[in-house]
Amino acid sequence: MVRFILRRLGLSLITLLIILVIVTLIPNIAPGDPARKIAGGTASPERLASVRESLGLDDSVATQLGDLTKSVFTLDFGDSFTKPGETVMGLVSAALWKSTKLVAFALVMLLPLSIAGGMLAAYKKDSWIDRTIVNTGLALSSIPEFVAGVIFLSVLAVPIDFFKVGANAPTGAGLFTQLQHMLLPAFVVVTVYFGYIARVTRAGTIAALDSDYSRTAFMKGISTRDVFRRHIFRNALQPTVAVVGTQLGYMFGGMVGLEIVFNYPGLGKLIFNAADSADYPLLRGGVLIVAIIYMAATLVADLIIAWMNPRARLVSEGTS
User: Fold this and answer.
1) Mean pLDDT, to the nearest integer, of 143-149?
2) Are 192 and 113 contacting, i.e. CB atoms less than 8 angstroms apart?
3) Residue 58 contacts by C-beta under 8 Å, 6 or more apart in sequence?
4) Which of 202, 249, 286, 304 reaches 20 to 30 Å from 241, CA-CA?
5) Domain boundaries defined on the chain
6) pLDDT tens-place string over residues 196-241
7) What is the DSSP letter of 169?
């Protein structure tokens, strides 16, 4: 198990290094002068020199890469250019907390619904129930998140006062009020991801149902509920765990359209605004934090799968 964990950590570090190189090159390969974009077209030469020094653009790419790597381990990305007096990590932390609340609330609704739907579709394979769940999931997942957000706003938020137009609750609001404001964005997440996760769960469940141990259990007269609980559930959920782990990074940093539609100050919107305003320190910090979240979620998913199925761990170690 230790070897398995070390191998996964090594792969994560390689991925992080690749991302560090890409993020380092962003201001160097961007069209135009990044310093002038930040300082403005009428900035004095002294101001431009100050911005270039802050970005480290006068240093070699290797030096910039080393400084950025150090920033990752110290979590110190400097100050934001567009929000004077605000540190990058302070802004990212606030947005990350917002995104964490929304993602957690959405997952509480999404996972039970999609897993139950996928398992039911597998158990009723080729029936009208199976076709309804699969086709409904495909139809819903084909809707872009910002379109789904607009639809929910028009259908629910406008005629029904309970559903709030803005996802960001007032300062000092209680837990119920916060959840009430995040309800529609969470509905959008469920809409976008239900079909994908349900199909993955369905495929895993079908494979588990067709396995020798499941057939033997049914032949012994064990009830369907006990077969699912003892044999199928753990094995069927392994691909689902892998999918959720790989999608968490996107849920935190990629749902820009959703956060813009509901005016939610999450991590995705922060990164989008940083890119739009050429705030490279904030852009670098936000992108790297999302990358770290993605790698951590993937690593945790791998460990959960290894715990659920030790054979997967042995195969991985055998191929290393």
Assistant:
1) 86
2) no
3) 52
4) 286
5) 2-74, 88-318
6) 999 999 988 888 888 777 778 778 778 778 877 777 887 788 888 8
7) P
Residue type, 171: T
Cα separation values, 283 from 49, 76, 91, 116, 257, Å: 20, 13, 11, 38, 17
**Residues whose CB is less than 8 angstroms from the CB of residue 8 and which lie 6 or more positions away in sequence, other chains included:** 299, 302, 303
Residue 307: count of CB within 10 angstroms of its CB: 13
- Fold topology of 88-318: MetI-like fold (1.10.3720)
10 Å CB burial of residue 290 (0-12, 13-18, 19+) is buried
> Is 196 in a helix, a strand, or coil?
helix
- The string of DSSP letters for 35-98 reads HHHHH-TT--HHHHHHHHHHHTTTS-HHHHHHHHHHHHHHT---B-SSSTT-BHHHHHHHHHHH
